[in-house]
Amino acid sequence: MSKAIENLEAAQQRATVIRPKVGGFPYLAETLRRAGVTLISALRTDQAGESTFPEFLAASWRAGFVRYDVDFNTRTVAYYGCNEEQYVEAYPMVDAGS
Length: 98
Known about the structure:
The chain has 98 residues and is of the alpha+beta class. The chain contains four helices and three strands. Strands 1-2-3 form a three-stranded antiparallel β-sheet.
């Protein structure tokens, strides 16, 4: 197992111990941030046009997220870790033409 995955798993275990049942995401996010996980950096790099889609997917994976869901009705993307923890980000409506 790689050092990065070991680091991620240890951080997730710490977060599981300290997080409350309701409103637990900030605890997970802070624990992951302290462990050096940088999903937000991967998102902002992609949004700035500074990475390709495959590079974004690889950066998301390295940040600890294993899947994502796009809700076209609410215009949100939810990124999930291996224990179903999630980060949700809204995206703007655009005119894609007809």
